[in-house]
UniProtKB/TrEMBL annotation:
UniProt superkingdom: Bacteria
GO terms assigned for molecular function: transmembrane transporter activity
Family annotation (Gene3D superfamilies): 2.40.30.170, 2.40.420.20, 2.40.50.100, Helix hairpin bin
Occurrences of domain CzcB-like C-terminal circularly permuted SH3-like (ranges): 328-388
Keywords: Membrane, Transmembrane, Transmembrane helix, Transport
A GO cellular component entry from the record: membrane
Low complexity bias: start-end ranges: 38-49
Family: Belongs to the membrane fusion protein (MFP) (TC 8.A.1) family.
Protein name: Cobalt-zinc-cadmium efflux system membrane fusion protein
Keyword Membrane: yes
A Pfam short name: BSH_CusB
Biological-process GO terms, alphabetical: copper ion export; plasma membrane copper ion transport
Amino acid sequence: MRSKTSNKTLLIGGVAALVILGGGGLYMALQKPSATPAEEAAPAKAADQAEGEAGHADEGETPEGVVELSAEQLKAAGISIVAVSRGGGGETRLSGRVEAMTDARAAVGAMVGGTVERVLVAPGQTVRAGQPLISLVSGEGAALRADIDAASAAATAARQAFQRNRNLADQGVVARQEVEASQAQAASAEAMARAARARATAAGSPNASGRMSVVSPISGVVTNVQVGPGGFVAQGGVVAEVTNPARVELVFNAPPQLAAQVRVGSRMRVTGPQGEFDALVVGVAADAGLQDSGATVIRARPDGGGLPPAGSPVTGAVVTGNPSGGALTVPSEAVQTVDGATVVFVRNDHGFRAQPVLAGRQAGGSTEILRGLTGTERVAAANAFLLKAELAKGEAEHGH
């Protein structure tokens, strides 16, 4: 009895174990193995990489050493473009000063002698051309006015006599010779009247009392007044000095040998109290300095912009040599250093290309280019350093 029970129990347990194992194996077979996190991330990474490569293929990469800029960006950055020029030569530094131009100074004198009635200006006052400076009472001026009146009256009488004789000649009363004589007398009287008026105008147009004004011939600032009310001014005596502060130029004393090397139109780089600026030579005068010194005087004017006040000291660097030949030159600010190499940025259809060059001497704000350019290029000058910065920025982004 016990044996049957035990066998039955064992049989039931084995069937149950078989069902459990069989069901578990079936469950395991139907389930997919779970992937690890690394295996799950791999397909996504591959997809992103493929998409990025496709994006780069669509965009296209900027060639190395090229900075692409549109016309609007170029204007906003203030980058100027200049042509490569030819020049070269040496550089000589000169000392100079700012002086008023020859036509910017006036020592105003009285054309006739007289007594100063009023002084109408003071030093430092701004005046315009034709503005009265002083008022004179002149006996000589009154005489000039009287000469006008007398000459005008004589001209009127001669003109009337000529008209009368011409009418009588038409009636046969007087001879034709008398008519011709009276015509000549009328013409002479008219000439005398014109001369009298011209003398009075040159003297300041005095009135019948001899009062007249001495006027300024130029616009500017009164720098000196040499008379006072009640004083007497002789004919030709200076009553005031006027200077136009806006009409100034640079004057340099140079060695005699520069007279043959510096020409009108030569460029100079000038340093003054307000900084550096460019200037053009407008005159070269040999032996124009002190007596027997043989010095050369060079006059120059700023190439745009203004100058410091008259009397300000300046120094200038003038380029000597043949400006029409020699090496190729570019503005010194066009030459930049990129990764240890000397380059200039050459303009192309889309922007600028960094062109390696061999630079030579510097003179007058220009740099010689001994190798690397043909002379037909157009290069970035002012603010070329912005292109250098943009190129470095692009290379850094490309490296990442």
